[in-house]
Specification:
- The protein has an eight-stranded mixed sheet with strand order 6-7-8-3-9-10-13-12, sandwiched between helices. The chain has a four-stranded antiparallel sheet with strand order 2-1-4-5.
- 32% of the residues lie in helices and 25% in strands.
- It is built from 14 helices and 16 strands.
- Helix 4 packs across helix 5 and helix 5 crosses helix 6.
- It folds into two domains: 214 residues, Rossmann fold, CATH 3.40.50.300; 131 residues, no CATH class.
- With 386 residues, it is an alpha/beta fold.
- It is globular and about 70 Å long.
């Protein structure tokens, strides 16, 4: 049996099964200001993330805007340069690749962008948009090129005659299908899906999700699926990672994240997801996080979530949360969380509750830390009182 290092244990994936490996990745952006344009600070967009993505799986990545999800995806693709750390794709360190070697690896990694309106060049026909990748990598010419474009359009559920149209002739869902076809043109193994359905109508979102699931099964693809909506991530992901302010705060199997999340931030996110059952929705309560996510230019000391954490307030504001940054540690089978008081979070029924074998969102804070009085800073209310 292959030996698993401490870093690999923290990431929750044995090295033999990893297609993408991210090791202590940091992406910092300088901030300049003043009349002389001097450097005034640093935006820590991604600040020390380690994870593995197994070949053939979908890793969902969730978190609020400003948590660093998209920057992490871009850094994995090397569309932005990392400040520190490294990314390995199929064992190769992508930071050391240039020229033809980098082009060969990039053919195996593609991205589907969030906005289907701005991600397609309005001056090009669909055939040129999809065929551009075929031309760059010299994969097909002439009749073979036209046939490949028609095949890709049919693969994503579009008529091959659409190849001669411009992007303005399509709806948002159709444009996103074209974007997916463009990503598939070079036969990649790994695709970063950067919130691919957030700009679409709800009625279209399910169609695009089902398309991605079908393509993954038929083509053996591996996804990093970035999203805000936890219900969407649950539908498509094998494992889920939760990011907050540039850090990975929880990582584990999808079922474990939704049934036994060990980080207060994850539970707060889950409590905000609507429940389809009217009776449960009327009775349940929500954890309302106070304020916005802090600035990545000046993150809080210790646990970065403690300034908004409901569990921190209920435990009497322990100094450990303010002073010591919690590392990711094992709380279950292939399940990790970065919280000093993960056991207390696991004992809580805030965020999720098991109900007859199915996970329902809940938010009854009294069960979280019994016999500890709530403070004014922890805002937890009935939905009817919002």
């Amino acid at each position: 049996m292959a030996r698993v290092t401490a870093a690999e244990a923290v990431a929750g994936v044995a090295p033999a099964g990893a297609l993408v490996e991210v090791e202590d990745l940091k992406v910092h952006f300088p901030v300049f200001g003043g009349l002389l344009g001097r450097r005034r600070g640093t935006i820590r967009a991604v600040d020390g993330v380690s994870l593995r993505i197994r070949g053939g799986e979908t890793l969902g990545l969730v978190g609020e805007s400003g948590s660093g999800k998209t920057t992490l995806g871009m850094a994995i693709m090397r569309l932005v340069e990392a400040t520190a750390g490294e990314v390995r794709f199929d064992g190769q360190r992508t930071s050391q690749l240039n020229g033809a070697a980098l082009r060969r690896v990039r053919r195996r990694m593609q991205i589907v962008l969030q906005d289907p309106y701005s991600s397609l060049d309005p001056h090009l026909r669909v055939a040129a948009i999809i065929g551009e990748a075929l031309d760059i990598h010299r994969l097909a010419t002439g009749a073979a090129r036209s046939g490949r474009i028609a095949e890709l359009l049919r693969l994503v559920g579009l008529d091959s005659r659409y190849a001669d149209r411009y992007p303005h002739a399509f709806s948002g869902g159709q444009r996103q299908r074209i974007g997916i076809a463009r990503a598939l043109a070079v036969q990649p193994e790994f695709i970063v899906c950067d919130e691919p359905i957030s700009a679409l109508d709800v009625s279209i979102q399910a169609q695009i999700l089902n398309l991605l699931l079908r393509l993954r099964q038929e083509l053996g693809l591996t996804y990093l699926f970035i999203a805000h909506d936890l219900s969407v991530v649950r539908h498509i992901s094998d494992r889920v990672g939760v990011m907050y302010l540039g850090k990975l705060v929880e990582l584990g199997p999808s079922a474990a994240i939704y049934a036994r999340s060990g980080h207060p931030y994850t539970r707060a996110l889950l409590s905000a997801v609507p429940v389809a059952h009217p009776r449960i929705e009327r009775k349940r309560r929500r954890v309302i996080l106070k304020g916005d996510i802090p600035s990545p230019a000046d993150p809080p000391s210790g646990c970065r979530f403690h300034t908004r954490c409901w569990l921190y307030e209920r435990l009497g504001s322990p100094g450990r949360c303010r002073d010591d940054e919690p590392p990711l540690h094992v709380i279950g089978d292939d399940h990790l969380a970065a919280c000093h008081f993960a056991d207390e979070a696991l004992a809580s029924d805030v965020g999720v509750v098991e109900n007859g074998g199915s996970a329902e969102r809940s938010s009854r804070p009294g069960g979280a830390t019994p016999n500890i009085p709530a403070t004014k800073a922890a805002t937890i209310s009935d939905r009817s009182g919002e």
